[in-house]
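Hydroxymethylpyrimidine pyrophosphatase (Fontibacillus panacisegetis), 274 aa
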Amino acid sequence: MMIFASDLDKTLIYSKKSMKETLSEDELVPVEENGGAFTSFMTQSALSWLTLITQVASFIPVTTRTISQYRRVFQFSKNVNVKYAVTSNGGNILVDGEPDQEWCEHVRLAVESSASREEIKMMYDEISSPEWALRGWLCDDLFYTMIIDPDKTPLEILDQFRSKLLAQGWVLSIQGRKVYLVPERITKGDALLYLKERIGATYIAASGDSLLDESLLKVANYAISPRHGELYALYGDSHHYRFTESSGIRASEELLEWVHRGFLEHKSQLISSR
């Protein structure tokens, strides 16, 4: 059994604002609906590559989105066979659309070693200012999403805050206008390892663009990241991760083509070794 585990936003699916180029309507496939409007898209080519991948591997969406936000992505339930999904940055695992209670209990026990949500929110309020910290909310009772004004945000203050958070067992990730505050013990990688053992997988390919995806990439046999993401900004081409040549929505086509090629090569190696 082989797994393709991938982040969603700015890795596989894109809002029109995050595409980095204007595509014709014929090139785009709506994948998410919110409030009666289509809000995220894939290219026709990317969806075709993903469909080919599902013929040789199990596709597992892995996202920081909450359960309700993930359920807005209708395309996967409509045209792509998805039995397992990881949401809430690894805090929840969905099996046939419903939370896995064994994993929920594991997460509950894991976060007890970190500072409480209330302490972290208090720390953030102390360093933030209404000039750049616009609003925020608690997601699935697990972590915070904070909206900022990137042009007015003093990044040096957030960098210092990141170090303080680590001492409290929490991590900080900046993705455009969003700042995520997440318990260190809740990771996409740990959730994927749980699923790997559950379904008996032997090979994992993974993709993701942000620091919150790094735990996912680290547990994979093959990892690829879009060039436009937080990981590329941090590591550049010097890191051992493969980065796409393309940026924006075209990066999804490139990484899916590479993943499909990697699965076929791995399958061929298995056959030749018998």
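The chain is about 35% helix and 25% strand. The two ends are 16 Å apart (CA to CA). ok done for today
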